[in-house]
Amino acid sequence: MPELVSPTSVLILWAVLGYLLGSIPFGILLSRAFGLGDLRKVGSGNIGATNVLRTGNKKAAAATLIFDGLKGAAAVLLARYFAAEDAAQLASLLAFIGHCFPVWLGFKGGKGVATFLGVLLALVWPVGLACCATWLVMAFWKRISSLAALAAAASSSFWAVLLTDGTAFFLCVALTVLVFIRHGGNIRRLFAGTEPRIGQK
């Protein structure tokens, strides 16, 4: 059974490393690698996979989705391997924050959905899988990425209680609040009926 408590210095270290991992702007790096230009000048200007998809390049969008998820998972798995479970949870939270507020981009990052899912898949995989399923069902039903993301985030705390011993419940609550904050504009457009659908530029 993994250790649960880490020294403060170790927690600080993994908070910093988690943030730095999460702050890698794969959307921008991959868009440039695929010759798509500056992603911040495309569509919503967001650096996530949904906005990469607005360039019309599905491979670049898929790669962004995967790598944004992997960086969240990497923060969790590395912290868990080299430290303890509390470090893994802290690193996961900071990886999400790093994606949303990367120092390299003037703290203007993405909305964190792929990183959110990657974090949960690595930290508590049953919850991660349930959230992915929630996202997929809502995305196929309504064809609105932001609505699917909000549904997945909102369900995460429920899944944490239903499928685990509740260890990650408070982390899921914190991540959900951050996801909703990052989607403030999307929520307003959803109520106004003007939110674009998946694939729409």
UniProtKB/TrEMBL annotation:
Catalysed conversion reaction: an acyl phosphate + sn-glycerol 3-phosphate = a 1-acyl-sn-glycero-3-phosphate + phosphate
InterPro entries, A to Z: G3P_acylTferase_PlsY
TM stretches of this protein: 12-31, 60-82, 88-107, 114-138, 158-181
Cleavable signal peptide: none
Its membrane topology: Multi-pass membrane protein
Gene Ontology MF terms: acyl-phosphate glycerol-3-phosphate acyltransferase activity
UniProt family annotation: Belongs to the PlsY family.
The name this protein goes by in its record: Glycerol-3-phosphate acyltransferase
Lineage: Bacteria, Pseudomonadati, Pseudomonadota, Alphaproteobacteria, Rhodobacterales
